[in-house]
Amino acid sequence: MSNAEAIDHITMAGRIIDDIFRQIRKMDLRHMRTLDLNDRIDTLIRERGGTPAFLNYRGFPKSCCISLNNEVVHGIPGERNVEEGDLVKIDVGVKYSGYIADAARTFPAGKIAPEIQRMLTVTEEALRNGIAVARSHNKVSDISRAIQKTVENNGYSIVRELTGHGVGKNLHEEPVIPNFVDGGPEVEIEPGMALAIEPMVNMGGYDVVTAENGWTILTRDDSLSCHYEDTVLILADRSINITRIEES
After folding, report:
1. Of 55, 143, 181, 209, which has fewest CB within 10 angstroms of its CB?
2. What is residue 76's DSSP assignment?
3. Integer angstrom CA distances of residue 160 from 45, 164, 178, 191
4. What's the whole-model pTM score?
C-alpha cells in the first residue's frame, strides 16, 4: 500500500469501525437480539459510506460476527438475546472505496466477575504489545512472541488454530500472523503492509472446535474466550493503528 489514496481509503475504513465501536460502547447490550445488533452495525457502516466486508464473504450470511461467551470467533447473529454477564465479541470489517479494515472488541454485558475482567484486560494488553513491535523491518514472529508472552505469563492460553492476517483490497492477505511463535519462516514486516493483529485468548485450554453451522469456533472445554483486534498500517518510519483513534 504505497500511494496516498490507498492509505486514505483504508484509514477511512478503520475510522468507520472505530466510530461504530464507540457507538456500541454507549449501548446497553443486555436483552438485545444479536440479529438486531448486526442490523444496527450494518446501518452504521452504510451511513458512513462503507460496505460490510463480511457479508457474503465465503458465504458468511451476516454483516458482522457476534460471538458470545465460549464462542471464540465467527458467531452468526440471530435470534439469541444477550444476557446479563455475557461476553459479547463483535468483529467488524468495513470496505471503503475498495480497501478493507478489520477489528474486534469484547464487550461485557452488564457486570462481570473480576477474574473475567482480568482476562479482557490481559487480552487488550497482549494486542497493544503486539502492535508495539509491528514496525518496518521487524519480523512477524516479534508480534507473535509479544502476544504469546503476555497471555501465557498471565495464566491464559492463546488459540493456535486461528491467526491474524494481512488486509487491504482483500479481507485476508499475506502475511499470516500467528499469536504464538510457531517456528515457521521468518517473515519481515515491510512498509505498505496493513496487518490485522488479533489475539484470541481462552480462560481454559487453547483447543477449539467448529460448531454445526460450519462457522462458529468454540472453546473445546467450554471455557470463556476473549477477542480483540486492530488493523495497523505499516509506514517506513512508524505504524498507525487505523481502527483505534486515540482521543486527545
Report:
1. 209
2. P
3. 31, 11, 7, 27
4. 0.96
